[in-house]
């Protein structure tokens, strides 16, 4: 748009905005010629520009075809020069379209040196990016005038297309090892200064923290289980530990539950009042006192919740960046991955979309340098297998996409044998109220099992030692309790938590 000044009477002037009439798209024809000429003169020139330029980066169609021929030669490890490029174009049936052998000769005659080929290539790439953005904005503008298109859908599409453009053109330069060593030493010193020796975000589950050294920065952690195993209960217990016990800011994106439902579950977890009573508000006087006393732990806790339904990865990126910038978020939890989408991008199948989502989550974890924990559903393969070992989840049980396993730095499964009516292990030890956190994949550490207590009435996971201490205190206070307490399992290096019911209450 351009501004023009016009008289509107009695010497007054008014600025009128009028549209520009005709513009050339961003281009650099002379630089395109220089780069192509240099590629045919210098032996190693292609290796310099291969990660910067693609054939479509060239504005002139003839230049695009010439560069495509050069790419063909380079990929087949044949020499790139005026004669080989001419021959390759002849094979492709494009020699006459680009101007014949004479035009190829002209390109090489215009270049004195390839010294600035990388700089020239980056300018060409920038011009291409500018043309992509112009085309993108024109398309969005045209659709914005179409009243039959839903604005929310259009915004999703715009975000998706812009994300595609940015991902295609963002490249990270290599880094010499010295500053990386310095960063690694800083992390090592930080871990050494902590008495627990943990370098990552603490979960509050001692066995899990010991095995993982805490959730590590830039890691994508997948926590998967079949329905009713307590995935949400686990991450809520963990978020409470992080925020309340260690004052670690954590963000929770729930695609399945509303904010109020999540907070209700947190109240049940912290106050240890049965969920059905919280739902009905049917509390005894002592439970009201217990609620008033324990709920204070949640006030001012650095927990941030978002219940946007059908959240897209692009919305998540925007919100996550803001949370990290404004609130110093140290960990993001997503409940759960299969409910996300990648709106605005087209896919041949749901599996391809899930692959894009998991890849984007890993990229976001690296960008923000924080751990991202995503819950995931398992397929029904677990249900069809027989025996105690058959019911244990496996990596092959991850639902909808093998890319989840590939992109994740760590894959953990939640397994509660009691759910499958398995109440004793092979040694006769009780499995009632126990759950296993199975670390099936750990890119930077060991795999194994961690045992915790699961209290189904309170949808709460606890350390076994912590549960034993509570039981001993409770048994002293209730010596004449009419009902026996559930058995305490042998304390081992690994395992889960307490409860007498198989189902998570809500």
Q: How is the biggest beta sheet arranged?
A: 9 strands, mixed
In the sheet with the most strands, the strands line up as 5-4-6-7-3-8-9-10-11
Shape, per Cα inertia axes: elongated
Average pLDDT rating:
78
Structural class: alpha/beta
Helical segment count: 19
Overall helicity:
40-55%
Question: Taking Cα atoms only, what radius of gyration do you get, to the nearest Å?
Answer: 30 Å
Number of strands: 11
Give the SSE order as H and E letters: EEHHHHHHHHHEHEHHHEHEHEHHHEEEEH
Query: Percent of residues in beta strands?
Result: 5-15%
Distance from first to last alpha carbon: 57 Å
Low-confidence stretches: 1-19, 470-506
What attributes does this structure have?
two-stranded antiparallel ribbon, disordered N terminus, single chain, 11 strands, elongated, 506 residues, 45% helix
Topology of this protein?
Layout: E1 2-7, E2 13-18, H1 29-41, H2 45-49, H3 61-75, H4 82-92, H5 100-109, H6 117-144, H7 151-169, H8 177-192, H9 206-212, E3 220-225, H10 231-245, E4 250-254, H11 259-271, H12 275-280, H13 285-294, E5 303-306, H14 313-327, E6 331-335, H15 350-368, E7 372-377, H16 381-384, H17 387-390, H18 403-407, E8 410-415, E9 434-442, E10 448-455, E11 460-462, H19 464-477
Parallel strand pairs: 3-7, 3-8, 4-5, 4-6, 6-7
Antiparallel strand pairs: 1-2, 8-9, 9-10, 10-11
Helix pairs in contact: 1-3, 1-5, 1-6, 3-4, 6-7, 10-11, 14-15
